[in-house]
Amino acid sequence: MNRAVRLCALVAELRAASRPRSASWLARSFAISARTVERDVRSLRRSGLPIVARRDGYTLDRSRVLPPLQLAPSEAVAVAVALHRLGGTPFHADAASALRKLGTVLPETDDETARELAERLHFAVGHPAPVVPRVIADALHGRTVLRIDYTDRYGMATTRHVEPLGYVGNREYWYLVAWCRLRDGVRAFRTDRIESVTGTAEPAPPRRLLPSDLDLPGDLVRPLVLG
């Protein structure tokens, strides 16, 4: 059993187990050493899998794990294409992490079929989109204030403290929508014009991003819907 297959099998075992599995138990089950089990668990943790080490063995934190996804090979490739296209968006780091995990939800035969289909797809190389700093995504998720140095379309540079509310994106640019303390109102900041950004530990007051705040015709903008 090669390492990639073993890692998938290890995830499947921890997912299916009703009680923690010790390193020695897993070592016997997969005919490897306990040290190899520990090394595999470290790798899976680095990839984002919530494995908890308890006194009686390893288990998954089920509050942070989705049920197994039943994806057809073509669906898996479609998801991979969508994740590839998130480079340059606020979600590029999360997309790369999700892409690494995608193969673990497919049975071995479907994984081979998906990889064969993926080999037929190619992306033309163009100018890379500016990468949105992770600190912006973290501030939106954690609801904290950001300090940004911003240059507007007229070349005017300002330093502002903003409270992130959301994003608006199109094929070319992404905008951070935030409550701007300098202007005392909601503003949209094109992310490639943010010269520098610093996270703060200051909690942002609770505010909702309303459709009317976007100042865009309703037929030109739509929210992301899960499911």
Automatic annotation (TrEMBL):
InterPro entries in UniProt: CBASS_pafABC_assoc_protein, HTH_11, WH-like_DNA-bd_sf, WH_DNA-bd_sf, WYL_dom
Domain of life per record: Bacteria
Short name of one Pfam family: HTH_11
Record-annotated Helix-turn-helix type domain positions: 9-58
Coiled-coil stretches noted in the UniProt entry, renumbered to this chain: none
Domain WYL: 134-198
Record protein name field: Transcriptional regulator
